[in-house]
Amino acid sequence: MKDLALFDFDDTLTTKDTLIEFLVYYAGKLRFYTGLILLSPVMISYKLKLIPNWRAKEILISHFIKGHDQDDFHQVCERFATEIVPALYRPQALAKLDWHKKKGDDIYIVSASPADWLTPVAADLGVGLISSKLASNGGRMTGKLDGKNCHGIEKANRIKQQLDLSDYNEIYAYGDSSGDTEMLQLATKRFYREF
Predict the structure, then answer these.
(1) Which site from 26, 91, 107, 115 is most exposed, i.e. has the minimal number of CB atoms within 10 Å?
(2) Taking the C-alpha atoms of 169, 104, 172 and 78 in order, what is their torsion angle to the nearest 10 degrees?
(3) Strand segments (E) across 66-127
(4) In Å, how far are 96, 125, 154, 173 from 61, measured between CA atoms?
(5) Which is the CATH superfamily of the domain at 2-192?
(6) Residue-by-residue pLDDT tens, the chain, 195 positions
């Protein structure tokens, strides 16, 4: 039996939250920070736990991408994955990921960030991906999530839907926030803020 390694992405494999970094890259600094000012009531409501994580995320994303051409959006996601993300990696986290590769483990990124830019990242790293997805309709981005936000209990649900955990001898999980708690609970070896 082989082992399984599950890595949260934002602030675990990377030093920053890539959703924010992507929106700055996509919209430009001026438009991004202007948008944050306009959306400050939403962000305050989220911090006060008046609206859930997924809803705040949809409102934020929708503000910047709703109605944009799907193909153009994905081209920007590809550029972001190759031009920006590599500079955000934590060297210790990549070293641990490489250690798992050398052992022959199955490795997955499990993230609330969208597959739109994580798919090329996962392909470049040579690992699997379980993540949130953004919806499109008629070739246009809707700004909505396609399905549930891959955060908290949904991380554990998606892992169990996609993988048969009984196939693995050991399950390693790496996370950094309360959104990773349920994923960490699936593991036989848990690492919280390891890097």
Answers:
(1) 91
(2) -140
(3) 106-114
(4) 31, 26, 19, 28
(5) HAD superfamily/HAD-like (3.40.50.1000)
(6) 899 999 999 999 999 999 999 999 999 999 999 998 999 988 898 888 889 888 989 999 999 999 999 999 999 999 999 999 999 999 999 999 999 999 999 999 999 999 999 999 999 999 999 999 999 999 999 999 999 999 999 999 999 999 999 999 999 999 999 889 999 999 999 999 888
